[in-house]
Amino acid sequence: MTSIGYDVLIMSQKLNFINLMTYDFHGASWEPTVADHHSPLRKRPTDPSNFNSDFAVNYCITKGMPASKINMGIPVYGMSWKLSSTNIAPPAPASGGGAAGPYTGMPGFMAYYEICSAVRSNGWQVVQDPTQAIGPYAVSPTSPKTWVGYDDPAMAIVKSNYILSKGLGGGMVWDISMDDFRNTCVAGANPILTAISNTLNVSLTIPTTPSTLLTTKPAVTTTKPISTTKFASTTKPTTTTRSTSTQKIASTPKPASTTKKTTIKQKSTTKVAPTTAKATTQATRSTTRKPSGTFTCPRPNGLFPDPASCSSFYSCSNGTPIKMQCGTGLYFNPTLLVCDWPSNVNCTVSG
């Protein structure tokens, strides 16, 4: 279908990179009777089709897309089913989508922070694939059982190493709001994003001057930052890096059938709290922000509050500020460096 819907060769000539959606290969919305992992890395003996990341990557390469322009997708959520038998090994008999997550509220879908919390606190059984062809799956102790397949930090490292081994441009995720951003499961904040960043950027050299992006006119370059952040593969020769991030926050996590994806392209991880996150009583310092003129980065790299607005902030890369906007109803939390509920920020803007 890719060759029918896209001219890959032309895309390779016109685009700086592509984000390959190597997830949602399976889902209860369109496969209600079979529970299976929605983001396999490699083909398994039980697979009747080529629904896996390795096949998708190699297919694009054979169609003319340079490996260095491919960013492979890694999910930060799981697809769930309600099992209809005692068999839990995928593909397992099922009867529709699993119970909705307590915060995402969508049958057949769970954010990673909901999954790890269920495992930690509710007695869900986790099964790992010894071949690492797929990530883990977890099964609830309830009757009927809920089955969910997902990627954990360990599988994110496996996929990141695969990205390096193939010489790909980097990795991207859907989506950053579904990682364990509040460290609910005591593995550190944003453990999946951290695992990806640490693996892909293990030997990344950070430049002291902003990078430039080649435009379609060969003789002209521009320093205008692109709107995505890429974890650069260490196998791709470069002396400069780009470090910016997409800042789109939806009011609820997108269902599996959505086509709009959050991209991570390069080295920095931007932590963003989802509007579906559990309310918290954690208080942060009260901040009064005053409008000012041109923003100057306090430090060359990092996230900093906007003096003129509680709901926006600046992402500084090598001293260049890029204004970012939180989602509707959220304020930037300068302590946690995330977009958070206003009750946790206590920010006011004075004239």
Keywords:
single chain; 351 residues; alpha+beta; TIM Barrel; Antimicrobial Protein, Tachycitin, Chain A; 7-stranded antiparallel sheet; 3-stranded parallel sheet; 16% helix; 22% strand; globular; chitin-binding; Chitin-bd_dom; Glyco_hydro18_cat; chitin binding; chitinase activity
Describe the structure.
Helix 5 packs parallel to helix 6. Among the domains are: 196 residues, Glycosidases (TIM Barrel), CATH 3.20.20; 43 residues, Chitin binding domain (Antimicrobial Protein, Tachycitin, Chain A, Beta Complex), CATH 2.170.140.10. Helices cover 16% and strands 22% of the residues. The relative contact order is 0.12. The chain is an alpha+beta fold and 351 residues long. The N and C termini lie far apart (56 Å). It contains six helices and 19 strands. The longest helix has 14 residues. About 24% of the residues have low confidence. A hairpin with a 2-residue loop joins strand 14 and strand 15. The strands form six sheets. Strands 2, 4, 5, 6, 7, 8 and 9 form a seven-stranded antiparallel β-sheet that branches. A three-stranded parallel β-sheet has the order 1-3-10, with helices on one face. A three-stranded antiparallel β-sheet has the order 14-15-16, with no helix packed on it. InterPro entries: Chitin-bd_dom, Chitin-bd_dom_sf, Chitinase_II/V-like_cat, Chitinase_insertion_sf, GH, Glyco_hydro18_cat, Glycosyl_Hydrlase_18. Belongs to the glycosyl hydrolase 18 family. Chitinase class II subfamily. Keywords: Chitin-binding. It holds the Pfam family CBM_14. GO terms for molecular function: chitin binding; chitinase activity.
